[in-house]
Specification:
The protein is mainly beta and about 140 residues long. The protein has one helix spanning about 10-20; strands spanning about 1-5, 25-45, 50-70, 75-85, 90-115, 120, 125-130.
Length: about 140
């Protein structure tokens, strides 16, 4: 496990992807908390096979952040990040994170898995899904 902090102004997804690549992490989990000044959240509309998005700006507290680290069908690092944010009015927003900008700090723990997790494109759903089966 690695614990680190992103700095004010860092783009969260861009920076985390670069860190994961520099550490040569193939798969794992990232969890975090902190504060953002801007975030673009997305929700996947299954029937249309497309995302809708909402941009939030201001003082945003990160109540929860998690991202699965895997490889996309082309072998590039793919983060699947989700977040729960609250604003100054304690209104809460949650969704898939397209990108966010660190407002004060963003502290994360990166847990590396030894198994390589790969994604494949599922044409019925329209997304790149994890190519792992669970045996019970």
């Amino acid at each position: 496990m690695k614990i680190l902090a992103l700095k004010k102004g860092d783009k969260v997804i861009e920076r985390l992807t670069a860190i994961v690549d520099s550490m040569k992490i193939q798969s794992g989990l990232i969890v975090g908390l902190g504060a953002l000044s801007k975030a673009e959240l997305m929700v996947y509309k299954l029937a249309e096979k497309e995302y809708s998005s909402k941009v939030l700006e201001g003082s945003l507290e990160v109540g929860s952040f998690s991202a699965i680290i895997a490889k996309d069908p082309e072998g590039k690092t793919h983060l699947h990040p989700h977040i729960v944010l609250s604003n100054e009015n304690f209104e809460t927003f949650a969704g898939h994170v397209k990108e966010g900008v660190v407002g004060a700090t963003f502290e994360v723990s990166i847990f590396e898995d030894q198994e390589v997790i790969e994604r494949y494109h599922d044409s019925e759903i329209g997304l790149n899904l994890i190519n792992q089966e669970v045996e019970i």
